[in-house]
Design brief:
The chain has helices at about 1-10, 20-30, 50-65, 70-75, 85-90, 115-130, 150-165, 180-200, 225-240, and strands at about 15, 35-45, 75-80, 135, 170, 215, 220. The protein has about 240 residues and is α/β, with parallel strands linked by helices. The protein has a single domain, classed as HUPs (Rossmann fold, 3-Layer(aba) Sandwich), CATH 3.40.50.620. The strands form two sheets. It has a five-stranded parallel beta sheet with strand order 3-2-1-4-5, with helices on both faces. A two-stranded antiparallel ribbon has the order 6-7. α3 packs across α8. It is globular, with a radius of gyration of 17 Å. The termini are far apart. Catalyzes the ATP-dependent conversion of 7-carboxy-7-deazaguanine (CDG) to 7-cyano-7-deazaguanine (preQ(0)).
């Protein structure tokens, strides 16, 4: 009876991969609207846009003010040192080099194995803290072509994690099949104008870590792939 009770509780407890960006903030709101207890996990991997790490506490604090239910449900935040990723990689996300396409058809912002490692580490923490749901902002519809963001990749990883840990963790990717405009609409449906303003003003997406200029869609350089996707989505969202 005890084991059954623990499993049932775990299915109501989620861990959100939370970077401090638009997608992960939307996913956090999505999880807070569905699960009784939600914790967050972020990763310091030597990213070029490390400003996102400094924005995380501010976003977490402000999202509590949007809903009393969300405030009650939002639990502990965890930041994990994964600096070994930058030691293994040579990418525009971890080094001060120009963003460009590679011979394999992928942009050099792709960090091989990053999302796979993120999810595996998150699963390890979730196992210990009895959190049965892993929530990630991976998307196959409006993205830069990263293979570790694909639905098949995440489904295969879920099988491997559960086999290797003898567990029943579920990986949820609420943004997988929607574009950036639909992501803005999802945020609006979850938290209204308060969440939209929080995403605009406080989250960080820009690959170059640019935080100076405030655009209609938020802070950023305005020209990197992440900024272009965010700006295009916001324009389509506000156009109705």
């Amino acid at each position: 009876m005890t084991v059954v009770s623990e499993v049932q509780d775990a299915t109501k407890r989620a861990l959100v991969l939370f970077s401090g960006g638009q997608d992960s903030t939307t996913c956090l709101a999505w999880a807070l609207s569905r699960y009784q207890h939600v914790e967050t996990i972020g990763f310091d991997y030597g990213q070029r846009h490390a400003i996102e790490l400094s924005m995380r506490p501010q976003v977490l604090q402000k999202i509590r003010t949007i809903s009393s239910d969300w405030d009650h449900r939002l639990g502990e935040d965890h930041v994990i040192d994964l600096s070994l990723i930058s030691q293994l990689s040579h990418t525009a996300m971890t080094e001060n080099i120009a963003i460009q396409m590679q011979a394999n058809g992928l942009p050099n912002t792709f960090v091989p194995g990053r999302n796979l490692m993120f999810m595996l580490v998150a699963a390890t923490l979730a196992y210990r803290r009895q959190l049965g749901i892993l929530v990630g902002g991976m998307c196959e519809t409006d993205f830069s072509g990263y293979p570790d963001c694909r639905d098949d990749s995440l489904k295969a990883l879920q099988v491997a994690i559960n086999l290797g840990m003898d567990s029943r963790l579920n990986i949820e990717t609420p943004l997988m099949w929607i574009d950036k405009a639909q992501s803005w609409r999802l945020a609006d449906s979850l938290g209204g104008s308060a969440l939209i303003e929080l995403i605009r003003r406080d989250t960080h997406t820009c690959y170059l870590g640019e935080r100076g200029q405030m655009h209609a869609w938020g802070h950023g350089c305005g020209s990197c792939p992440a900024c272009e996707l965010r700006a295009k989505g916001y324009q389509e969202f506000t156009a109705g």
